[in-house]
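To: structure subgroup
Subject: Chain for Friday's discussion

All,

I'm putting the inputs and outputs inline so they're searchable in the archive.
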Amino acid sequence: MEDWRAQAGAMLSPPCCAFHRNVEVSSRYASLYRQLPSCFKWAAMAAIASHHIRLALFPLRLDTDRGGYLDVTRSLSRRGLLTGDAHTIRETNNAIYDDIYWVHLAYVADEHGMDRVRQLLNGDQYYATVLSAFESIDRGRRLLADETSTEESRNRGRELVWAGNIELLDHEQRSTVQPQFARLSRLFAHVISMGATTSFEVHGVRQELRYFSSFYLYFFTGGLSHALRPPTWPRITRLEHRWRWLEASVVPRFRRLEGAPHLIEASLTRVVDDARQYVDRPCIAPI
């Protein structure tokens, strides 16, 4: 397991700044989806989510010099300006990559990928959901790859693939994101709740509306009854609120987007292009 983690880490540049690391992680997810688009749905959603997260890292820019380098000590001391929260978001994005990306690498390495994943994860309680997810994805992949499959079987395959990817999303949110989000300040929690949207980088007003999803907009329309249940105001840092939005709004919109392959390709191209542009920009000192 550690060897595969190291291999995933080696696919990123040496320790670098928060912004370069963010675009590299986003680009790696996008490339992963392109390698196996029929199966790696989580990777595409993770690419777009990581791409949007860069906006939450903006407070880290406050302590950069003219050369683009960051005074880490000073930056971490700016608690009143939400810089500590921005570092938590950075750590969360990196932790998701470290936790899940390597499993995808092990799966696609060769034709024995699923056997390898079983060997690596079997008996590991922490990764039980991830193993179950890849079992579903692999079963679905086999049904889709079978030229003798009926349309009913192929539909079953697609649903198995999606069931597995939603399990991966569940693992990500419960095991990695929630412990980090619990550390965020109340003010920052409200800020990111208001700013939590998913547009998939689709251009054109009519198309944007079709694929757009906002955390607060969802709760005050379709999720209204849940939002008004006592005792809490909807907040994206609360797992039950965030998961309801992801499962009922974000995932269905992504599935709709997949029905137009040129649109999802345009979204991922934007992610990869941003990563290429950052290569020539000054890197902020490692943090």
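Points worth raising on Friday:
DSSP finds 14 helices and two strands in the chain.
The CA atoms of residues 2 and 102 lie 9 Å apart.

D.
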